[in-house]
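Quick sanity check, 4-hydroxy-3-methylbut-2-en-1-yl diphosphate synthase (flavodoxin):
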Amino acid sequence: MANNHLIPRHRTVPVKVGNVTVGGAAPVVVQSMTNTDTADAVRTAAQCAELFRAGSELVRITVNSLEAAQAVPEVRERLDKMGCDVPLIGDFHFNGHKLLTAVPECAQALAKYRINPGNVGRGKKRDEQFAQMIEFACRYDKPVRIGVNWGSLDQELLARNLDDNSKLAQPLELYDVMHAALIESALTSAAKAEEYGLPHDHIILSCKLSEVQGLVRAYRDLASRCDYPLHLGLTEAGMGSKGIVYSTAALSILLQEGIGDTIRISLTPEPHAKREKEVIVGQEILQALGLRSFTPQVVACPGCGRTSSDYFQRLAEQIQNWLREQMPVWKDQYAGVESMSVAVMGCVVNGPGESKHANIGISLPGSGETPVAPVYEDGHKTVTLKGDNIAQEFQALVETYVQKTYG
């Protein structure tokens, strides 16, 4: 069950992104991004729908060419026909002002624009091109995320800050100058957007790095200096366990401090792997912190010399996958089921105790133990399973428990 009341949130203004509220008292939102060529409207819409079904509440798409911009209205139309009302965010770099001018239908179809101050233009053109994009946001009443990345930091701003720093009696370290430039880029760009007419409650900020401690420092600083909603995420988390661990380490610190209104887990996907992994990791971080509940959680022991068989491991995996597959239907039929806990334990040491603590749990026999598996519901033993069909029988018991408890 979500315990978000235990973590005081950094107070931010609420921003409407399509049918989703970001900031204010709204729950932290899970976001993801496609990796298809947006010009291929069929594949892009299909991946958006997959991410939405996995639990992504906002989906960002690349808008980097005239063909991509022209495809955005079709992507939106295809999603609407599928009954997929996920808001789309347009990710712009370098030429966004030109694309929105050339394809106003794209500007209308998107629910939010993402602008990188470091890539919006150079010299005198920077302010002019930034203003053009803000004018489109004002015209179509769209919110904007001003997203600063340390890999594409405004070089003119950084050079100016480095020059000023060199004149100090005690110059700061390069890292500190870069940190200050990140924050300044975000806040001054937000101030300019408001000068150009964008309402205060139409702005979301982010300052992304790939390094955990730097990210934590940047967002703590940003949160102390503004009330804009903040979008969290490492700019490139990495692949596999590294990406998951780094994202969890960074975001958990900030979320525990009440900082963050949307999150995106920027995992490098394994070759041919599904894109939805980043959505699941984001959900699990929020659920682990007690901020939100998305799907019933399976408690399972790590295994030891008492559990020489891999039976409980296979059952735990089977139940966990099955529970996630049921959620698209269950969340509409069974209110609160997403907070349910299920225990699949492998021996008598902690098995009965953990099973009693869960809503429903099974304690499988370990090596040399009597080949029976007691099942507990809400702390009470209800049945003992035996034989070759324990997995199927336990799954049926879980389904019955859901129906009678959350129906």
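Posting the structure with no commentary besides this: The chain is about 45% helix and 15% strand.
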